[in-house]
Amino acid sequence: MTDGANAATGAGVGTVAALLVFIVASVWLGTLAQRAVEKGSFLKGYFLGNRGLGAWALALTATVQSGGTFMGFPSLVYSFGWVVALWIAAYMVVPLTGFGVLGKRLAQLSRRMGAITVPDLFRSRFESPAAGLMASLLILFFMSFMMVAQFKAGAIVMQVSWPGSGALTLDEAGPTGGDYYYRLGLAIFALTVVGYTLIGGFLAAVWTDLFQSVMMLIGVMILLPLALLAAGGLPAASRNLAREMAVQPPAAGDDKRQENSLPVEGRMRALDAALRHYAARNGGRLPDGLDELDQPVAELADGVAYLSGGVAIDPPGSMRRTLVAITLKDADGWQTALYSNGVVRSGKLGRPGELLTGPGPAGFHPLGMAFSFFFVWVFAGMGSPAGMVRVMACKDTRTIRRSIFLLACYNMLIYIPLVVICICGRTLLPDLQKSDEIIPRLALMSTGDLWGGSFIGGLILAAPFGAVMATVSSYLVVIASGLVRDVYQRFINPAASETTIRWLSYFFMVLVGAIAVAACLRPPDYLQSVVVFSGTCGAATFVVPALMAVYWRRATAAGAMAAMGAGVLTVLGLYSINWLQGEFKTYPLLGIDPIVWGLAASLIVGIAASLASQPPSRQLVSKLFDAPSPGR
Amino acid sequence: MSSPAPDPVLKSARREAIVVLLIWASALVYTIGFCYQFGYHRPVEQIDFILGFPDWVFWGILAPWTVCTLLSGWFAFGFMSDEDLGADGQAEDAAEETGEVRR
Question: Is A28 touching B (CB cutoff 8 A)?
Answer without folding.
Answer: no
